[in-house]
Amino acid sequence: MEKINLFCLPFAGGSKYSYRLFEEHLPSFLNLIPLEYPGRGTRMSEPLKEDIRQLVHDLYLQVENKLDRAPYAIYGHSMGGLLCYLLARKIREEGRMPPLHLFITGTSGPAALSRTEKKRHLLDKKSFIEEIRNLNGSPDEILQNDELLDFIEPILRADFKVSENYAHTRQEPLDIPVTVITGTREDMKPEDIRLWQQEARNPVDFRRMPGHHFFIFKYPYEIVSIIAKKLLVHHKSYQL
Fold it and tell me: Model's pTM, two decimal places?
């Protein structure tokens, strides 16, 4: 019986290896397919992209030949959550088979992101690193190692520029189920999180988990369980 593909989009500074913890908890009917942004991981030799439209197009090219082969869903955290939504819009524009579900963690609704006044990508190095430290997502061995910092800083700056310069345009809401999970100690307003409802035709399933922005590393089993339960209904229908 064919599996459901789960395309996973990395957060800022992440790579296709960012969701290895998720793979340990996958049920047998799910096939995790991590996507890779240019300029990191297995695509280290390619130039970084700072334009969100180019990045969405790049992601579309990565999944284009897989969209009709098997049912699929898309997951993304933080910047990956925004790109998850924009990729779904791109897939709709291209007239391709839509995802079964969008799973988004750690980010406000696109309309809120568009009006953010934070421009972390313009900060000096010391202030920029302090911002990274406050997100609780980078190990101290990276933050205290000058060589590693010099390596990852331009990647993070490029990614922050992508999301911080995002200009939202209202479009027809997606006719796709959406689940949004955020941490209880994240730096975002509840009303900004609820703006995801503007982008979905059906009621969004909003959930909270304890922790800061990178709560996903503490609860990989719980997050995968939510994804699996949502998609199990579709998998059973394919078996009939």
Answer: 0.90
At 231, give phi and psi (nearest 5°): -90, -15
**CA 219, 56, 148, 46 torsion: positive or negative?**
positive
Contacts (Cβ under 8 Å, ≥6 apart) of 50:
158, 161, 162
Q: How far apart are the first and last CA of the chain?
A: 10
**Hey, what domains does the chain have and what are their CATH numbers?**
4-110+168-238 (3.40.50.1820)
The residue among 35, 42, 33 whose CA lies nearest residue 69 is: 33
Helices (H) and strands (E) in the chain, counts: 9, 6
Coil, strand, or helix at residue 156?
helix
3-state DSSP call for residue 80? helix
Q: pLDDT per position in the chain (240 positions), as tens?
A: 689 999 999 998 888 899 999 999 999 999 999 999 999 888 999 999 989 999 999 999 999 999 988 999 999 999 999 999 999 999 999 999 999 999 999 999 999 986 666 776 767 677 777 777 766 555 454 556 667 677 778 888 888 888 888 889 989 999 999 999 999 999 899 999 999 999 999 999 999 999 988 899 999 999 999 999 999 987 666 554
Q: What CA dihedral angle connects 160, 39, 152 and 8, to 10 degrees?
A: 70
Other CB atoms within 10 Å distance of the CB of residue 161: 20
**Dihedral (Cα; 61, 67, 70, 76), 10-degree rounding:** 70
